[in-house]
Amino acid sequence: MTTPKLAVATDRGRFYTDPNPAYDGASYPSVTNVLSTGVSKPVLVPWATKITAERAMETVGTLMKASRDPKQREAAIKDLKAHVRHVSESAAELGSHIHDAAEKHNLGLPMGEDADVEAFALQYLAWLDSWGVDLSTDLEAAEASVVHRDAGYAGTFDVLIWLRSGVKRARELWLIDFKTSSTRAADSVFPEHVMQLAALRHAQTVWLPHGLEAPMPMADRCAVLNLRRGDHALMEVPADRDAFDGFLGALATTKYLHSLDIKTAVRAVPAPGLAIAQRKEAA
Predict the structure, then answer these.
(1) pTM of the full structure
(2) Which of 19, 49, 173, 193 has the fewest CB atoms found within 10 Å of its own CB?
(3) pLDDT tens, 222-239?
């Protein structure tokens, strides 16, 4: 996803600024900020370990030479650390380009000719075709930012779209988030994806262009659309009230952590005996 217009990156993650003058520039943490700050992601450690191990095997000769020199060893360790960050940032950048290509198609614009993006973009087109989607009538909204002012968060969804998924192919309104990966299977979904869609689904308001806004429609169903180079899968998730309550818990944790200044909130407490000895020395 490209950076939403109302979003701002800060040292505490992404925040949205309320464009409605009635709320005097109120600021809200983004849904992804909340999930990054307040939700444990245990798969990240094994993933980083795997990436580091692969890098070490690719550069084993260089590492063996570096191990004999303290300065070279330190540089090699920094390289391994930086490689994990590089892989993560590259994947995020590719995901943004893929989201951008999908958004362009939704707007009737050319998707571009980026070879890395094309395979994923073709899977998006294949998915639209498999459901017989007519964007002119079935696409309710795309890349729209939403806010829940009472709870105090905001976010941006990928598409709100009508699919003929009901009884006798009746149309149902789906809230769908795109997920891209070059390594994970097309049927992979993480718990935070469920909470993300629950937060977006239960938002109160959609921010429209030109300072306008409207009530957020309640989607009938929610799903992650996993786009891969040669495959795709629509994975429905239970973005229900329980999932939303879970998100609200993570939101409370996030707000507390954002407000906590650990440097001033804690202090060393000397043992009584040490304090007495220090007073005697001072006397």
Answers:
(1) 0.85
(2) 49
(3) 999 999 999 999 999 999
